[in-house]
């Protein structure tokens, strides 16, 4: 929770975009959403201790909604609760990633093929707008904003295909992949590579080449899966 600075001042962890501390959050769902986002973005690191009292003070609520939010996060695999030891941000389970990769490839292979069959000019324009925003964020080194647009690109393909529910399902399946990927985005040139891969997918969809679109998506999804062994060496405390 709030971390002391070198001068000993305690700073709030949770703030609005303008820097204003979050106060008076009244529902477990709102607390869950904020903690969920902080864990996925690695704002809250794997293995970090979570204290109900501190979180309650930060959000200006009682401990009951905080406890409810933490239980939901534990069910999602993002928090670990040890009755005798405390509550912690879950470390990334290496064993869960291969299956999540298989599921993502299978489902996104389906959505990109369908999108390729039905895409209209307005759909291609939607993809172009997302890619343009990615270029801006990459140029500014804004990794979090870039990741959000990466998500938007894949969500858009599911929507174009008429399968928005597939993306909703995938968001729950790929949680651990996303946490690991956050460690790779600062890598030199990786954002530019993602953009190039997105452009290849977009171009295949635009000309209704189903085989090319599928192949491009499979290549992209293989490329964005992080090298877990390498990441474990760089961040040994983040994985289990």
UniProtKB/TrEMBL annotation:
Gene3D superfamilies membership: GntR ligand-binding domain-like (1.20.120.530), Winged helix-like DNA-binding domain superfamily/Winged helix DNA-binding domain (1.10.10.10)
HTH gntR-type domain segment(s): 25-92
InterPro entries in UniProt: GntR_C (IPR011711), TF_FadR/GntR_C (IPR008920), Tscrpt_reg_HTH_GntR (IPR000524), WH-like_DNA-bd_sf (IPR036388), WH_DNA-bd_sf (IPR036390)
Highest taxon listed in the record's lineage: Bacteria
PROSITE patterns: HTH_GNTR
Coiled coil: none
Keywords: DNA-binding, Transcription, Transcription regulation
Full protein name: GntR family transcriptional regulator
Organism: Shinella pollutisoli
């Amino acid at each position: 929770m709030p971390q002391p600075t070198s001068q000993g001042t305690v700073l709030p962890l949770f703030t609005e975009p303008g820097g204003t501390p979050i106060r008076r959050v009244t529902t477990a769902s709102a607390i869950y959403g904020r903690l969920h986002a902080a864990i996925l973005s690695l704002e809250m690191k794997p293995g970090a201790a979570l204290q109900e009292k501190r979180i309650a003070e930060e959000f200006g609520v009682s401990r009951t909604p905080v406890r409810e939010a933490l239980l939901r996060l534990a069910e999602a695999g993002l928090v670990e609760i040890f009755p005798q030891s405390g509550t912690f941000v879950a470390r990334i389970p290496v064993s869960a990633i291969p299956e999540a990769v298989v599921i993502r490839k299978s489902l996104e292979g389906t959505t990109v093929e369908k999108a390729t069959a039905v895409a209209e000019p307005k759909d291609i324009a939607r993809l172009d707008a997302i890619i343009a925003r990615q270029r801006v964020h990459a140029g500014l080194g804004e990794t979090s904003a870039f990741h959000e647009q990466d998500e938007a690109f894949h969500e858009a393909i599911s929507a174009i295909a008429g399968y928005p529910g597939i993306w909703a399902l995938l968001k729950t399946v790929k949680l651990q992949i996303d946490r690991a990927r956050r460690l790779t985005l600062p890598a030199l040139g990786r954002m530019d590579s993602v953009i190039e891969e997105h452009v290849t997918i977009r171009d295949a969809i635009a000309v209704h080449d189903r085989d090319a679109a599928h192949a491009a998506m499979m290549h992209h999804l293989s490329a964005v899966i992080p090298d877990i062994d390498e990441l474990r060496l760089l961040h040994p405390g983040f994985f289990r």
